[in-house]
Design goal:
By secondary structure, this protein is an alpha+beta fold. 28% of the residues lie in helices and 23% in strands. The structure holds tetrahydrodeoxyuridine.
């Protein structure tokens, strides 16, 4: 078991680590491994706008580079008042690296929380099983 509120607060902290130079819209992510480690992520933008990378993917790539392969949940916080759902590209990458059982915790400005399973956010998805 894990505390969604705890990783939500980590995602809020992670927001300030990014470089949203063009949009000035900060997004933070906190990815929790099965053994309790938390990896921060934040959005990093590029003057060639399409090369921008989202908070969720920076967290996942950082964790994978550290050798992590088993994940419980990811929390996402942003400058928006409302809950920020992960974009489609991040859903696909999280599915690949963290699996469909990953819990996705969103936190809004009032510190309220919404939780989903990744499989509900990306149903009927393409994945490694289609390449066998
Ligand atoms: N962004 C994220 O970091 N995660 C998402 O799931 C949605 C969008 C970032 C990308 C860009 O830096 C900014 O938010 C505006 O799109």
């Amino acid at each position: 078991m894990y505390d969604p509120k705890e990783i939500a607060q980590e995602a809020v902290k992670a927001k300030s680590k990014g470089l949203p130079k063009y949009s000035n819209f900060h997004v933070g992510a906190a990815l929790l491994t099965k053994n309790g480690k938390i990896y921060h992520g934040a959005n990093i933008e590029n003057s060639s706008y399409g090369l921008t990378i989202c908070a969720e993917r920076t967290a996942a790539f950082q964790a994978v580079l550290e050798g992590e392969r088993n994940f419980t949940a990811i929390a996402i916080a942003s400058d928006a008042e409302d809950f920020l759902p992960p974009c489609g590209a991040c859903r696909q990458v999280l599915l690949e690296l963290c699996g469909k059982e990953l819990e996705v915790v969103m936190v809004n400005h009032k510190n309220e929380i919404k939780k989903f399973s990744l499989k509900d956010l990306l149903p009927f998805s393409f994945g490694e099983e289609h390449l066998r």
